[in-house]
Amino acid sequence: MCGIVGYCGPKKASEVLLEGLKRLEYRGYDSAGICVSHKGSFETVKRKGKIKDLREIVPSNMVGNTGIGHTRWATHGEVTDENAHPHYDDSEKIVLVHNGIIENYQVIKKRLIAEGHTFLSDTDSEVISHLVATLYKGNLEVALRETVFLLKGTYGLAVMHKDNPDKIVGVRNGSPLVLGIGENEMFLASDVTAILAHTKQVIYLEDKEIVVITADSYKTFDFHEQELQKKIENIGWDLDQIEKDGYEFFMEKEINEQPESILRAIIGRTDVDGATGHLGGLNMTPAELLNIKRIQIVAAGTSYYAGMVGAYLLESIARIPASTELSSEVRYKNPVVQPDTLYFVVSQSGETADTLYAMRELQRKGGRVLGICNVVGSTIPRESDGGVYIHSGPEIAVASTKAFTSQITVFYILTLILARMRHLSYEAGLRLVSGLESVPEKIKEILADSGELKKIAVKYSKYENFLFLGRGLNYSVALEGALKLKEISYIHAEGYSSAEIKHGPIALINENTPSLFLVPDDDLRDKVINNIKEVKARKGKVIAVAVKGDDEIESIVDDVIWIPKAHSLMYPYLMVVPLQLFAFYMALELDRDVDQPRNLAKSVTVE
Ligand code: AGP
């Protein structure tokens, strides 16, 4: 998604902006630009490509102390220098950067062209700068307040006007914007990672809010000119947490962080004495939790697959009917909301538009919606009716890994709580707690022994199609494994329930389409073996992720990725980590952009 940075202060703005945009790279982008205000004039440099390409054309004498910057993830208009932000109005007195989508931009653009405006880009964003110009009567924030009432869509904006070259006005509606408060310097950014090097004091803007900053002041307003007194919050992360810690790739770092990140999701939330768990933030009494008759989990992408694990656990262990729905489908399906249904939205970024809008639709219909998120202070946790942070730490790589295992950890603990409130015995609860607490060590074992897995990944890197197959609790893990391979290696991969392969997908099997089967030593193992044999009978190559000690499997399949034995409910953890590594090593072998795969964004804040 697009990234925005704004700066007012004593430093060289171009440096602050370029460094801030660099830290927003993980959001995904295809072009970038900055505008710096100096002695009443604006100087803009922008181009398609990466921040390093932009830096090459930033003149060393670009010395202004106020400026705005942008990384663009194209939605309207090709990836070109002209379509990169910032954008001016005709007079070049107004300049802005925008994150979001203006849905009624064509109507506005047509009217403005008829009134004599000249557009230099194909973007929706450029209409905003021209519109502000038509409403400007000497006060930029007043002009912006009038402008936003004419816009339909989502926008995070940072805007400057030549009349007040040391001032920036920010607007938030549907796309995140945070104010950073420094010593005689102020920052605007799409998220805190862009400004963490300078300050930990931030104010998270809400939708329909405006902020006006200069080097030594800030004011916040609503869209009706009402000045706001907003709470200053302290960011709990450190800069090193968003650095690579010696790894070449963020994804590699985040895969290897999982023993620690899972522990952070568990710590303080299991109760051995009561053989249960504790999740602060649910904002529900035990009686309210006991009255829940159904749970629906809403999410997108990897978070959706984590939700599938959660739904399976809640229904099979806590005996509460549970289902998952894709965020993008929920918003427009006119969902039936019932009072005894509890909703969870799952989102690492807390900014995914599909999930945010689904939550709002469910809340509009009276649904109680709890969030399971990672980024503290992001929109979903601030608007939900409560929820749980997964504490996985900043996840920078576009491909989600440690967030997935931390998300399912929250579902394991939620399942434990709800099951022990109902029928789960003390002993069974204890077994679940100990199974969960054993996971980090078992993942360390997998990570320490990934050499063979890397060889298998390299061996299969020439294939162009894969099937991923898992059953029961691991069906969603197969789906997640297929997504990982798709999104970072660009290889076509489909996930299926193992048994489903004979209902059609087996037609795809030949020697050029390998299948990767998840084979835990659980009650369904023998049935999965049958599915494997069906594939082998048709000359399909098979890789199995199997449990150490399974003596039969090696004679049936072509290659085995071994995992340690575990509590039968814990295999989603031990199966997903090899699939993350498999995708990572394949992408490396194919020389892909592992942390920022083509076309992808870390947080999809547009529909
Ligand atoms: C996962 O690897 C992808 N990057 C993507 O599917 C992601 O999970 C999805 O966009 C949801 O993001 P969220 O968890 O921030 O809502």
Could you walk me through the main structural features you see in this protein, from its secondary elements to its overall organization?
With 607 residues, the chain is of the alpha/beta class. It folds into 3 domains: 3-241, 4-Layer Sandwich (Glutamine Phosphoribosylpyrophosphate, subunit 1, domain 1), CATH 3.60.20; 244-444, Rossmann fold, CATH 3.40.50.10490; 449-593, Glucose-6-phosphate isomerase like protein, domain 1 (Rossmann fold, 3-Layer(aba) Sandwich). It is 34% helix and 23% strand. It contains 20 helices and 27 strands. The chain has an 8-stranded antiparallel beta sheet with strand order 3-2-4-1-10-9-11-15, covered by helices on one side. The protein has a 7-stranded antiparallel beta sheet with strand order 5-6-7-8-12-13-14, covered by helices on one side. Strand 13 (217-222) and strand 14 (227-228) form a beta hairpin. Helix 3 packs across helix 4 (126-135) and helix 15 (439-448) runs parallel beside helix 20. The longest helix has 21 residues, at 402-422. The N and C termini lie close together (11 Å). The model has no long low-confidence stretch (mean pLDDT 94). The structure holds 2-deoxy-2-amino glucitol-6-phosphate (AGP).
Low-confidence blocks of residues = none
Biggest sheet, open or closed, and with what strands and sense?
8 strands, antiparallel
> What is the highest CATH level, the class of the largest domain?
Alpha Beta
Q: Pairing-aware structural class of the strands and helices?
A: alpha/beta
Bound molecules: 2-deoxy-2-amino glucitol-6-phosphate
Number of strands: 27
Residues in β-strands, percent: 15-25%
**Global outline:** globular
Instruction: Trace the largest sheet across and list its strands.
Output: 3-2-4-1-10-9-11-15
Give the end-to-end Cα distance, rounded to a whole number of Å: 11 Å
Quickly count the helices: 20
Radius of gyration: 25 Å
